[in-house]
Protein backbone atom coordinates (compact mmCIF):
# COMPACT_ATOMS: atom_id res chain seq x y z
CA UNK A 1 0.00 0.00 0.00
CA UNK A 2 1.30 3.45 -0.90
CA UNK A 3 2.14 5.83 1.93
CA UNK A 4 4.28 8.47 0.19
CA UNK A 5 3.95 10.19 -3.20
CA UNK A 6 6.66 12.57 -4.45
CA UNK A 7 6.04 14.77 -7.47
CA UNK A 8 8.38 16.90 -9.53
CA UNK A 9 7.06 20.44 -10.06
CA UNK A 10 8.14 21.86 -13.43
CA UNK A 11 6.40 20.08 -16.34
CA UNK A 12 4.73 17.73 -13.84
CA UNK A 13 2.60 19.58 -11.28
CA UNK A 14 3.03 22.75 -13.37
CA UNK A 15 2.65 22.94 -17.15
CA UNK A 16 6.02 24.35 -18.20
CA UNK A 17 9.41 25.29 -16.73
CA UNK A 18 9.38 28.11 -14.17
CA UNK A 19 12.82 29.36 -15.18
CA UNK A 20 11.72 29.68 -18.82
CA UNK A 21 8.92 32.04 -17.75
CA UNK A 22 11.49 34.17 -15.90
CA UNK A 23 13.85 34.15 -18.88
CA UNK A 24 11.10 35.34 -21.21
CA UNK A 25 10.95 38.56 -19.18
CA UNK A 26 14.58 39.24 -20.11
CA UNK A 27 14.19 38.20 -23.74
CA UNK A 28 16.44 35.17 -23.29
CA UNK A 29 13.72 32.51 -23.21
CA UNK A 30 15.07 30.47 -26.12
CA UNK A 31 18.62 30.37 -24.75
CA UNK A 32 17.51 29.26 -21.28
CA UNK A 33 14.97 26.75 -22.66
CA UNK A 34 17.73 25.15 -24.74
CA UNK A 35 19.93 24.63 -21.66
CA UNK A 36 16.92 23.31 -19.71
CA UNK A 37 16.18 20.75 -22.41
CA UNK A 38 19.81 19.57 -22.47
CA UNK A 39 19.74 19.11 -18.68
CA UNK A 40 16.35 17.39 -18.56
CA UNK A 41 17.42 15.00 -21.31
CA UNK A 42 20.53 14.06 -19.35
CA UNK A 43 23.05 15.57 -21.74
CA UNK A 44 24.18 18.28 -19.32
CA UNK A 45 25.07 18.10 -15.63
CA UNK A 46 22.08 19.42 -13.65
CA UNK A 47 24.11 21.48 -11.16
CA UNK A 48 26.11 23.16 -13.90
CA UNK A 49 23.02 23.84 -15.97
CA UNK A 50 21.18 25.33 -12.99
CA UNK A 51 24.07 27.67 -12.20
CA UNK A 52 24.34 28.64 -15.84
CA UNK A 53 20.63 29.38 -16.29
CA UNK A 54 20.20 31.28 -13.02
CA UNK A 55 23.31 33.31 -13.86
CA UNK A 56 21.55 34.54 -16.97
CA UNK A 57 18.70 35.91 -14.81
CA UNK A 58 20.96 38.37 -12.99
CA UNK A 59 19.30 41.78 -12.67
CA UNK A 60 15.69 40.59 -12.95
CA UNK A 61 13.43 42.37 -10.44
CA UNK A 62 12.46 40.02 -7.62
CA UNK A 63 8.96 41.49 -7.69
CA UNK A 64 8.64 40.14 -11.25
CA UNK A 65 9.83 36.72 -10.05
CA UNK A 66 7.12 36.69 -7.40
CA UNK A 67 4.43 37.86 -9.81
CA UNK A 68 5.29 35.17 -12.37
CA UNK A 69 5.55 32.50 -9.66
CA UNK A 70 1.99 33.25 -8.58
CA UNK A 71 0.53 33.00 -12.07
CA UNK A 72 1.99 29.73 -13.31
CA UNK A 73 -0.31 27.32 -15.18
CA UNK A 74 -0.81 24.18 -13.10
CA UNK A 75 -1.05 20.82 -14.80
CA UNK A 76 -4.46 19.37 -15.61
CA UNK A 77 -5.60 17.16 -12.75
CA UNK A 78 -2.84 18.19 -10.32
CA UNK A 79 -5.15 19.42 -7.58
CA UNK A 80 -7.61 16.55 -7.97
CA UNK A 81 -4.90 13.90 -7.98
CA UNK A 82 -3.22 15.26 -4.85
CA UNK A 83 -6.57 15.50 -3.05
CA UNK A 84 -7.40 11.89 -3.92
CA UNK A 85 -3.99 10.61 -2.82
CA UNK A 86 -4.30 12.45 0.49
CA UNK A 87 -7.79 11.04 1.00
CA UNK A 88 -6.15 7.61 0.84
CA UNK A 89 -3.82 8.60 3.68
CA UNK A 90 -0.80 9.17 1.42
CA UNK A 91 1.69 11.95 2.23
CA UNK A 92 2.25 14.08 -0.89
CA UNK A 93 5.53 15.95 -1.32
CA UNK A 94 6.95 18.18 -4.06
CA UNK A 95 10.63 17.96 -5.02
CA UNK A 96 11.73 20.63 -7.49
CA UNK A 97 15.00 21.57 -9.13
CA UNK A 98 13.17 24.87 -9.60
CA UNK A 99 12.36 27.51 -7.06
CA UNK A 100 10.68 28.03 -3.70
CA UNK A 101 9.00 31.20 -4.99
CA UNK A 102 6.88 28.89 -7.16
CA UNK A 103 6.61 25.67 -5.11
CA UNK A 104 5.94 27.47 -1.83
CA UNK A 105 3.13 29.49 -3.37
CA UNK A 106 1.60 26.45 -5.10
CA UNK A 107 1.65 24.32 -1.94
CA UNK A 108 -1.65 25.58 -0.52
CA UNK A 109 -3.31 25.81 -3.94
CA UNK A 110 -2.45 22.27 -5.05
CA UNK A 111 -2.56 20.82 -1.55
CA UNK A 112 0.71 18.93 -1.14
CA UNK A 113 2.15 18.56 2.35
CA UNK A 114 5.64 20.02 1.86
CA UNK A 115 8.00 21.29 -0.82
CA UNK A 116 11.75 20.98 -1.25
CA UNK A 117 13.29 23.25 -3.89
CA UNK A 118 15.89 25.96 -4.51
CA UNK A 119 16.02 29.63 -3.56
CA UNK A 120 16.97 32.44 -5.93
CA UNK A 121 19.31 34.87 -4.21
CA UNK A 122 18.17 38.46 -4.37
CA UNK A 123 19.77 41.66 -3.15
CA UNK A 124 18.36 45.18 -3.30
CA UNK A 125 15.24 43.80 -5.00
CA UNK A 126 17.06 42.15 -7.91
CA UNK A 127 18.32 38.65 -8.66
CA UNK A 128 22.08 38.32 -8.20
CA UNK A 129 22.41 35.30 -10.50
CA UNK A 130 23.15 33.04 -7.52
CA UNK A 131 21.08 30.12 -6.26
CA UNK A 132 21.10 27.70 -3.33
CA UNK A 133 18.79 25.15 -1.75
CA UNK A 134 17.65 21.56 -1.37
CA UNK A 135 17.66 20.37 -4.99
CA UNK A 136 20.87 21.62 -6.57
CA UNK A 137 22.35 18.36 -7.89
CA UNK A 138 21.31 15.43 -10.07
CA UNK A 139 21.39 13.18 -6.97
CA UNK A 140 19.44 15.58 -4.71
CA UNK A 141 15.96 14.12 -5.17
CA UNK A 142 17.08 10.57 -4.44
CA UNK A 143 19.09 11.71 -1.44
CA UNK A 144 16.15 13.64 0.01
CA UNK A 145 13.72 10.79 -0.70
CA UNK A 146 15.83 8.29 1.25
CA UNK A 147 16.04 10.71 4.18
CA UNK A 148 12.26 11.19 4.15
CA UNK A 149 11.66 7.45 3.98
CA UNK A 150 13.93 6.95 6.99
CA UNK A 151 12.23 9.69 9.00
CA UNK A 152 8.71 8.50 8.18
CA UNK A 153 9.45 4.78 8.33
CA UNK A 154 8.29 4.25 4.76
CA UNK A 155 9.69 1.60 2.41
CA UNK A 156 10.52 1.81 -1.31
CA UNK A 157 7.52 -0.42 -2.01
CA UNK A 158 5.26 2.11 -0.27
CA UNK A 159 6.63 5.02 -2.33
CA UNK A 160 5.40 6.55 -5.60
CA UNK A 161 7.49 9.07 -7.54
CA UNK A 162 6.46 11.06 -10.59
CA UNK A 163 8.56 13.24 -12.87
CA UNK A 164 9.58 14.04 -16.43
CA UNK A 165 13.33 14.66 -16.62
CA UNK A 166 16.81 13.33 -15.95
CA UNK A 167 17.09 14.96 -12.52
CA UNK A 168 14.20 12.69 -11.41
CA UNK A 169 16.26 9.54 -12.06
CA UNK A 170 17.83 9.56 -8.60
CA UNK A 171 14.44 9.34 -6.87
CA UNK A 172 13.26 6.66 -9.31
CA UNK A 173 16.01 4.46 -7.86
CA UNK A 174 14.28 4.43 -4.46
CA UNK A 175 10.60 3.94 -5.30
CA UNK A 176 8.47 0.93 -6.14
CA UNK A 177 6.00 2.93 -8.26
CA UNK A 178 7.78 5.08 -10.85
CA UNK A 179 5.66 7.33 -13.05
CA UNK A 180 7.18 8.94 -16.15
CA UNK A 181 4.81 11.82 -16.95
CA UNK A 182 5.10 13.19 -20.51
CA UNK A 183 8.73 12.37 -19.90
CA UNK A 184 12.08 12.31 -21.68
CA UNK A 185 13.29 8.94 -22.93
CA UNK A 186 16.01 8.72 -20.26
CA UNK A 187 13.32 8.59 -17.55
CA UNK A 188 10.77 6.50 -19.45
CA UNK A 189 13.27 3.63 -19.52
CA UNK A 190 13.29 3.48 -15.70
CA UNK A 191 9.51 3.85 -15.19
CA UNK A 192 6.90 1.17 -14.55
CA UNK A 193 4.02 3.56 -15.32
CA UNK A 194 4.16 5.79 -18.41
CA UNK A 195 1.63 8.55 -19.00
CA UNK A 196 1.78 10.53 -22.23
CA UNK A 197 -1.34 12.67 -21.71
CA UNK A 198 -1.14 15.98 -19.85
CA UNK A 199 -3.60 14.83 -17.20
CA UNK A 200 -2.29 13.76 -13.80
CA UNK A 201 -5.54 11.99 -12.88
CA UNK A 202 -4.42 9.23 -15.28
CA UNK A 203 -2.09 8.14 -12.45
CA UNK A 204 -5.11 7.24 -10.31
CA UNK A 205 -6.20 4.69 -12.93
CA UNK A 206 -2.85 2.90 -12.62
CA UNK A 207 -2.37 2.57 -8.87
What would your notes on this structure say?
With 207 residues, this protein is α/β, with parallel strands linked by helices. It has a single domain (4-205), classed as Rossmann fold (3-Layer(aba) Sandwich). Helices cover 39% and strands 22% of the residues. It has nine helices and seven strands. The protein has helices spanning 18-25, 29-40, 46-55, 62-69, 78-87, 100-110, 140-152, 169-172, 185-188; strands at 4-8, 91-99, 114-123, 126-133, 159-163, 177-181, 193-195. A seven-stranded mixed beta sheet has the order 4-3-2-1-5-6-7. Helix 1 runs antiparallel to helix 2, helix 2 (29-40) packs antiparallel against helix 3 (46-55) and helix 4 packs parallel to helix 6 (100-110). The chain is globular, with a radius of gyration of 16 Å. The model has no long low-confidence stretch (mean pLDDT 96).
**Cα distance spanning the termini:** 10 Å
Helix content range: 25-40%
> Mind describing the biggest β-sheet?
7 strands, mixed
Instruction: Work out the helix count.
Output: 9
Strand order of the largest sheet: 4-3-2-1-5-6-7
What integer value in Å does the Rg equal? 16 Å
- The figure for the number of domains is 1
Round the mean pLDDT to the nearest integer and report it. 96
> What's the order of the H and E elements?
EHHHHHEHEEHEHEHE
- Work out the strand percent: 15-25%
Low-confidence stretches: none
The strand count comes to 7
The CATH superfamily bears the name HAD superfamily/HAD-like
Classification by helices and strands:
alpha/beta
What is the name of the CATH topology?
A: Rossmann fold
Shape: globular
